[in-house]
Amino acid sequence: MSQEVITYCRICEPFCGMVATVENRKLVSLRPDKEHPLSQGFACPKGIAYTQVQNDPDRVLYPLKRQPDGRFTRVSWDEAMADITERLRRIHRKHGGDGIAVYGGNPAALNYSHALWMNVFLKALGIRHFFGPGTQDTNSRFVASHLLYGSLFTVPVPDIDAAELVVILGANPAVSHGSLVNMPRMMDKLHAVTERGGRVLVIDPRRTETAREFEWQPIVPDADAWLLLSLLHVLFAEGLADQRALATQATGARALRELTAAFPPEDTAALTGIPAGVVRDLARQLSQKRAVVYSRLGTCLGSSPTLANFLLDAVNLVSGNLDRPGGWVFGNPPIPLQKIVAPLMSYGKWHSRIGSFPEVMGMEPAANMAAEITTPGKGQVRALIVSAGNPVLSTPGGGKLAEVLDQLELMVSIDLYQNETNAHADYILPGVAMYEREDFPIFSMGLYVQPFMQATPAVVPPAGEARHEWMVYEELARSVLPETLRNAVSQVREKGLGPTPRLMLDSLIRLGYAGDRWGLRREGLNLDTLLQRHPHGLKLAERPTTGQLHNVVRHRDRKVHLDHPEIREEVRRLQARRPDPDYPLYLIGLRELRSENSWMHNPPALRAARPPHAARIHPDDAAALGLLNRGRVRLVSPWGAIELPVLVTDEVSQGVVAVPHGWGHKGQGGWANANRDGGVSVNDLMGTRPSALDPLSGMSHLFGVRIRAEHVPAEPESHAVAALEAGA
Ligand code: SF4
């Protein structure tokens, strides 16, 4: 029997609406939901291809135990959990929570029950070693928000619908579909800006897929902070600063003016590669129009990422575009994120054992993982739980991490696949795929430009013996309780009692401004009524909420704080940066339409149209180095070296090499297609020493890393060549 279920995709932030066709309790196809109020029939190739993840013959569907020869064999859940909990209990008794670490991958953050109960596990065991993709992705943005607004969770989003000028700095929405913002159809919205006579300017070292559709201004990689300092300089020096905004919205404007006084665009032009006249003209336009500067990973992954994010918001504020229509605005989440969830998020409550980095939402730098495992002393990691992650490929120095994982006394992975990280695990436990669970994007609710909410039911039951991650974490947490308490909790659970992620979600919806307050508001919503009455989702307003700065800023004076000693110190660090002549090129990252970080590499539908992993190099650089299109290149940084095919293209600026991350599948079982396509891990070129990380956020430096390139005398790989040409 065939049935259609309304749902949504949870691979990335747009959460595009989907219609799933189910036959005999099996997902057979997905198509975009035309009735979804925001995505309106849009979905990208990854979303459509997810049927092939759901039904992937390479999926882990049963608990697997690693044998002495490295192969995995099937075991029962009871056998696996009995051994895991016994060993975990032993390690916890001997070393406390400090001897245990958790790495939660990106899909965990997009799965509310997984994320909530992973945190319960961390708290229950007193674990401080919590790692995740945040230090390769976004934590610098959150720390900038902490400084500016007094809350890590106050993250502005661009009001493109009302903008006359949109500046995109280090972001590529044509491929990412909008990151750290919930805006399906972002490219349509950008085209609407130019159609109504406005301007979209993409500032990027690469002529990205987005830049090809609008104006492109090349910039030297990792120079965003210089550009933003100069924009602020011009805004202040030419009397363009919005004095009303400065007086009513901010404190510290004078200090910011003094800080930026030393950076006229004439002085930074050589560092950014952008002529001073262009910067001056842009600053004038920003101050005269409804305008917004939006950035993402390019800005978050540089060597001064917290500074750059801080300055970006300052530009939006000083030009009069913060919390204004068409500018840099704040979401209005229909669940009480700021009141209930945000206060639980801390910054700098403790510092990491290695490098003394401030924790960010409980997270330490993932670049420290290998050192935390190998460095003796109190806090040495003895056990590691990895859920929905592959840090061997997604963190700096992942090759080194792979070498030391076998030193752990216990390693457990909860995942859909056997990958390069959990190849070292004692056990791989099967987690659920996204259409096997009820869901709601709790943690992204503040990133919707228009307030919106959608919940989805589970579309199909878990395949094989896949189990909800939250249930696994709860069982692990129970294991360290004293026996009498453990038995009591188990009895409560057997009666179906006690808190669950669903109960918490339902409470958050009921408490929100659209909620039913447990019957006190007759037309209000709870989780069940949201699922039943609004399967396609519910738009709660047509326009973003502006003029709400005093509500979203958590500093006592309700003002944006523009003066911080940490930021002044970061400017000094920026000024002290010196190029190393041994490494004359800049390495930048690159997102691919048919890849998602270190996964989505196995579905055949994505593989067919995806070019092989290659380094994109400008024709002049290739000629100078003797590199041939289709040949091979060796990229060398102070921390490592990789070899991969060359794609000669003028889409990158001269002096820039672009390589997609997340590759380097090793062919050790697991996902067969991903292994076949292999690639190399660009993260092996990235630094893990404390001096290589952002001191304020622990972020890895992954964009604009200094490298050199060397010709590799080898025959071109003919099969790779054909695919490169087809995909390029
Ligand atoms: S952009 Fe693609 S992957 Fe992301 S939510 Fe939409 S369909 Fe899914």
Helix-strand layout with pairing:
Elements: E1 2-8, E2 17-23, E3 26-32, H1 45-54, E4 64-66, E5 72-74, H2 77-95, E6 100-104, H3 106-109, H4 112-125, E7 129-131, H5 139-149, E8 157-158, E9 165-169, H6 173-176, H7 186-195, E10 199-203, E11 215-217, H8 224-237, H9 243-249, E12 250-251, H10 253-260, H11 265-272, H12 276-288, E13 291-295, H13 297-300, H14 305-318, E14 328-329, H15 337-341, E15 347-351, E16 358-360, H16 369-374, E17 383-387, H17 391-394, H18 398-404, E18 410-415, E19 427-430, E20 452-453, H19 469-479, H20 483-494, H21 501-511, H22 527-533, E21 538-539, H23 549-552, E22 560-561, H24 565-575, E23 585-588, H25 604-607, E24 615-617, H26 619-625, E25 632-637, E26 640-648, E27 656-658, H27 672-677, E28 705-712, H28 718-727
Parallel strand pairs: 6-7, 6-17, 9-10, 9-13, 10-11, 12-22, 17-18, 18-19, 23-27, 24-26
Antiparallel strand pairs: 1-2, 2-3, 4-5, 4-19, 8-14, 15-16, 20-21, 23-28, 24-27, 25-26, 25-28
Bound molecules: iron/sulfur cluster.
